[in-house]
Structure formats: C-alpha cells, structure tokens
Amino acid sequence: MTTLKDISNIEDIKLMVDSFYDNIRKDELLGPIFNDKLQDRWPVHLQKMYGFWQTILFDVRAYSGTPFPPHKQLPVDKTHFDRWIQLFNTTIDSQFSGPITEEAKMRAANMAYMFNHKIEYFRNAENELKK
C-alpha cells in the first residue's frame, strides 16, 4: 500500500485543482453547468483556483476577490453542492493524506454549505419580492 503525502506546495495544489476540475468536467450533473458557465475560460478559472487554495491553505496572498457573486445565479441546489463535495473528497483522498488535506476538505465543505445557504436565501428573498 502506498502512503500518500500531505498537500505541501503549489504543485500539489495544482494537481488537486486540475484533477478535481477534470472530474467536474466529466460529471453528468455538474459538468454541463461548469462547462456552460466557463466555456473557453477554463485556464483562467484554474489559475484563480490555484491562488484561492494557496491563500486558504498556506496563508499566501495569491487570491483576492469575493468568490460568492459569480456563483449566485447558477442553476444549482443542495444536490449539486453535495455532488461537488463528494467529487472533491474522492479526488483529494486519492492523492493526498494529512492535516492540510483534511483542512482542505473541511474548508470545501464549509464553503459548499455557505454558498448553498446564501443561494437559497437570495432565491427565497427574490420570490418574496415577486409576490
């Protein structure tokens, strides 16, 4: 049995991000949403994600911005976020193991929960205004 190493540098983050989004692109639930939204802008998105995870996991200021607004209008619900977390955890667990890996999984789960909650909140608020 091979012992997996922990996420420890930008190259590990690139491997994690690239593998995860390769799986997203192929996924029958999430792939169409991501591919439609990003189209030919995948390289730009991946670069942002490298910086995002470097900032989150290593406290290196490689990302600045607000990640929620681009997600606010996506046609997603809890089912999509659950699938996103499942793919994230499966992908990362196949490559890495250790405290930083666990931190990444926890941060991803918290983000998915928060994004889902905020999207539902805004949708409900918009529906109330339409009444």
From TrEMBL:
Q: Which InterPro entries match?
A: Globin-like_sf, Globin/Proto, Hemoglobin_trunc
Pfam families in the record, alphabetically?
Answer: Bac_globin (PF01152)
Listed name of the protein: Globin
Organism of derivation:
Flavobacterium pectinovorum
Q: Which domain of life is it from?
A: Bacteria
Entry's Gene Ontology molecular function annotations: heme binding; metal ion binding; oxygen binding
**What SUPFAM superfamilies does its record include?**
Globin-like (SSF46458)
The major lineage groups are:
Bacteria, Pseudomonadati, Bacteroidota, Flavobacteriia, Flavobacteriales
Residues bound to heme = 71, 117
List the keywords (alphabetical): Heme, Iron, Metal-binding, Transport
